[in-house]
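Internal ticket - ligand job 263, nicotinamide-adenine-dinucleotide:
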Amino acid sequence: MERFKGKIATVTGGASGIGEAVARQLVAEGAMVVLADINEAGLEALARELGRACLPVRTDVSSEADVQAMVEAAVSHFGGLDIAFNVAGSARMSALIDQSEADFRFALDLCTVGTFFCIKHQARRMIEANVQGAIVNISSLNGKVPSWGLAAYSAAKAGVDMLTASGSLELADHGIRVNAVAPGMTATPATTYMTDEILGAYLERIPLKRPATARDQAMASLFLASDDAAYITGVCLNVDGGWQHAAYPDMRRWFATTPDSLS
Ligand SMILES: NC(=O)c1ccc[n+]([C@@H]2O[C@H](COP(=O)([O-])OP(=O)(O)OC[C@H]3O[C@@H](n4cnc5c(N)ncnc54)[C@H](O)[C@@H]3O)[C@@H](O)[C@H]2O)c1
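stdout (structure tokens):
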């Protein structure tokens, strides 16, 4: 499959996890990729592996100057920008009443302000060059549902969802589509802290009964950036194994009359 042959992409958070999987799949499908991250060693290692289709650029997405330089690197090195994947994100866990201002702002700066800087400069370049491009933001299921200790992260990711919706509205005249993927629990370096006990508690609630892989998230993201999604803009696509809709416990265990077809 070469859906992205000759296309030029940026991928933030590209040194690890979902961003790395996005970059690998893009290169496999013919794209040239500016790999952006604050993890320089990770960037260099992946760029060496992916070869000339990949340019590592140290980028802190919470710095507007860095984001601008990332977009300029795509233009000066590869000749333009067609598609963008804004993946970088994280947060510091804390009970809401104990959270410091600095830790709360960390999530907002990285996830929300970082995504704003990315959309702004990516779209400006696409408009200047008359490119009908596509932007995909990585949000989270936490942008839609809260979780203990993740108030800052949920607020920041809800902001990403609204930036996606707003961007889709404002950029449609230019033929630029803006969408998001909302991952559920995904096996990446960010979730290796989970013990078997924690993982088991999560899986009880996930209808598809497994964590997502980084590749699951990458394939959904690439679909939204591809021509197959030409009429899709402004959506935030759950890639969560059905998790958002599993608010209720599995009721079958309390009903003796469960039809065989449901047991
Ligand atoms: N793993 C999950 O379960 C999960 C669930 C929902 C959403 N997400 C979201 O998916 C995205 C990727 O997460 P992941 O699980 O692959 O994590 P990860 O830790 O494997 O990768 C995140 C990458 O972002 C980079 N990064 C951090 N701060 C940065 C900054 N200021 N500028 C540029 N890069 C920076 C890190 O160096 C790292 O390489 C994040 O936005 C995260 O919020 C992950």
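Auto-summary: The chain has seven helices and nine strands. Residues 153 and 240 are 17 Å apart (CA to CA).
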